[in-house]
Structure formats: structure tokens, C-alpha cells
Amino acid sequence: MDFGWTEEQKMWRQTVREFAEKKIKPYVREIDTNKKIPESIIRDMGKLGLFAPTVDTDLGGANLDWTMACIAAEELGRADISLAIPVLYLVEASWGFIFNRYGTRKAKENFLSRVTSGRGFCGIAVTEPGGGSDIVGAAKTTAVKQDGVWHLNGEKMFISGIRESCSWGGVHLTLARTDPGAGHKGFSFFAVPLKDNDHVETTLLEDMGRMGISTGGFTMKDVELSEEYLIGELHKGFYYAMEGFSAARTLIGATCVGAGEAALEMGMEHIKCRESFGRPIGSFEGIQFPLAEHYTNLEEVKLLTYKAAWIMDKMYRENKFSHHDVALAAAMSKLRAPVHTFNAMNEVADWLGATGYTKEYPIEMGIRGVRSYSIGAEGTMNIMRIIIARELLGRDFLPYNQ
Ligand SMILES: Cc1cc2nc3c(=O)[nH]c(=O)nc-3n(C[C@H](O)[C@H](O)[C@H](O)COP(=O)(O)OP(=O)(O)OC[C@H]3O[C@@H](n4cnc5c(N)ncnc54)[C@H](O)[C@@H]3O)c2cc1C
């Protein structure tokens, strides 16, 4: 067991930190207000290899492992506590990974090489208006093959990156029923381009936070796709989606560590300087004890997150561990990460007094942003609990039938 970082990991962290401090942090308020990440930031992130870094090098990726991908996520969370850029990063990284692993060569050459340079979006479209947690029960989207062409019909809702996909181009990996009688074994995954697609109608939603990246939905009316747009094997889409969610949940853990630590550091600066009753407020136990609790909680998240990343690296690179081990570790990280980070940010807002309620400090952006992770993005907290219990008790104890 080794809790240290390799020289390569330290250098990567340093590189991303310096980049993010200089090129991202000063613009976070502007991003939140304008609801858009400036193109110059996207371009520079692309140059540094921050889009889908686990993708193969011949498609413009860096073939990074998950520990390295998490280090970048943590540093982006530290710089942008509104979490807009970290969300953009983690969506591209996790779903770009699935596209790279299972997509056809032709589709990858058309789309993935654009994603890795920041000129194309790769999103995920599972959730439907009827519900996200029970997608097997709620999904109405279908894909039917006629004369060698797939025809997709249905509606996806609460989907990240709709505006980005429509302006940059790219694809949303979209789950559709291909065998309606087969439950979760009857889904397939398709790469659906949204930009300039006459058979797609998009909508945008106004979110509470992480304003720099859009959320919305799209309706497909007879979207025609050739076989190269099918991701992996027919009827395996549900499994690919679950695999991608585990990756995304681990990256969420890492962004929460970065954002939570940044918030605590901001709070510590303040409590060391702000005086009340003749002393810095940081010398009162009423302030110190919560600091100790939140710091320890974030350390717990860090350990869970990097253990999940370590398990993923062992599975993908050394064929040790299973998808079940990864799902369990990722769910535990996601169950703790947004809650501990939200609580730490909320505490720091208290320490800041009235300024904590103003836009002078970025803390309110953090509080709004991190809530997206606990409300539902990449799965709700109860779904994390269900996954953990499923791995402990076995599928026979699932509260639903599949
Ligand atoms: C900001 C944001 C971005 C998102 N981006 C994407 C995206 O890019 N792509 C995508 O596909 N989806 C996306 N989602 C959707 C997300 O995956 C869903 O919100 C999530 O799966 C929950 O689905 P739901 O919102 O329909 O809530 P529901 O499934 O209706 O759940 C509502 C509540 O009931 C609880 N619940 C449900 N079933 C059970 C049970 N068996 N036991 C106990 N409690 C239960 C849930 O935990 C939750 O608290 C995004 C969501 C958000 C908030």
C-alpha cells in the first residue's frame, strides 16, 4: 500500500494547477454570469489535453489512467468551484472513454478526435421525462432497424451540454430500447449528433448552478443512423451506460475534493484575519471544531475517490477487480462527496458572515453548483445507496425487478 504520488502524478497536478489558477480561476464569476465558458478557455484546455484525456493517443487523447484523470478533475474543481468547467471535463472524460472503448473506428474518427481537441462535445443521454432513476421502467425511446438503417424516436430530458453540442457539434451517447421485452438487456447505445439535425428538436432549462454548462433536452423524430453509430454490441447499452456512470461518479468525487478544499482554504484565510470579541474568530472552538470535521470529511472523500480510481486502473490496465468492485467504490465516493463538499461550503459561508451571502465571494456559486451532484447528476444519492446495498447483499435483494 502506498499513499504517495509518483513524480509523474505530481508534475501533472502542478501543470493543471498552474493552468487552472491562471486561465480559469479569474474568470469563474464571468462564466457564471454569462452562462458560457469563453472559447479561449476551451481552446487552452484542449491544448493541454484536458478533454477526454483517457482516450487513445491516435484520436488525440493522452491515454491517461483514472488516477491521472482524477487529479485533473480535482484541480479543475479547485479553480472553478461553480463546477461548470469540472462538469464539462468529467462528462467528456467519462463518456469519451466509453466512446473510445466501444465506438466504431469510423464514428470515433469523425467525432472523438474533435472532442479531444475541444472542438466537439461528447455527452450522455439516458434520462427521460418519465424518470431517471428507474430508466428501465421509464424509457420510451426506441431504435428500430429497417433496411440496414436505425430509426430513433423518443425524448431525453435533463441532459448536460445541449447548447454546447448544438454549437460545437459532437454526439450524445443515447440509450434506446432495441428489444422492448428484455428489460435492461434490451437497450442499445447510439452516438446521436444534435447539431444541424432536422430530426432533433432541443430545449434548454434554466439551472440553479454550474451556469457555464447548459442543461436541456431533445426530442428525436425518426432520427436515421447507420450501423457505425451503434456503440458496441447490440443490447449491451445499459451495461455501457453503467460503466460510464461509475467513471463519472469517481470524477465527481475528485471535483468535490478540489472544490471543497478550495472553499475551506478560503474560509481559513478569513477566520485567521477576521476579529470578533478582540480575537481572530479562528481561535474560537465554535469555529475550529467544524473546521476539523469538514477537513476530515473531505479527506474521507479523497480516500474513497482515489481508491475508486485505483480500482479502475487495476481493472482496466491489469485485469484485476470487476465492474462490480468499480461500481461499489464509485457509488461510495459519490454518496459522500457532494454532501461533504456542500456542508463544508455552507460552513464557510457562515464564517464569512454577511459577505458569504454576497457575490463578492465565490462560495454561493459553489453551493449552487455542488447541489447538482447530490440532486441527481450521474445518479441520485438513494441510487448510490441501492448500488452499495446491491453489491453487499446481492441482486436477489434489489427493491425492484429487472
Ligand atoms: C444538473 C443535472 C444534469 C444532468 N445531466 C444529465 C445528462 O447529461 N444525461 C442524463 O442522462 N441525465 C442527466 N441528468 C439527470 C439525472 O441522471 C437524473 O436527474 C437522475 O437519474 C434522477 O432522475 P430524476 O431526476 O428523474 O428523479 P427520479 O428518478 O424521479 O427520483 C426522484 C427522487 O426519488 C428517489 N428515488 C427513486 N427511486 C427510488 C428508490 N427505489 N428508493 C428510494 N428512493 C428512490 C430519488 O433518489 C430521488 O430523490 C442530470 C441531472 C441534473 C440535476
Protein described:
This protein is an alpha+beta fold. It folds into three domains: 7-121, Acyl-CoA dehydrogenase/oxidase, N-terminal domain (Butyryl-Coa Dehydrogenase, subunit A, domain 1, Orthogonal Bundle), CATH 1.10.540.10; 122-231, Butyryl-CoA Dehydrogenase, subunit A, domain 2 (Beta Barrel); 238-397, Butyryl-CoA Dehydrogenase, subunit A, domain 3 (Up-down Bundle). Helix content is 54%, strand content 15%. It is built from 13 helices and ten strands. The strands form three sheets. It has a four-stranded mixed beta sheet with strand order 1-4-5-8, sandwiched between helices. It binds flavin-adenine dinucleotide. Flavin-adenine dinucleotide binds at residues 123-127, 131-134, 158-160, 207, 215, 372, 375-377, 379-380, 382-383, 399.
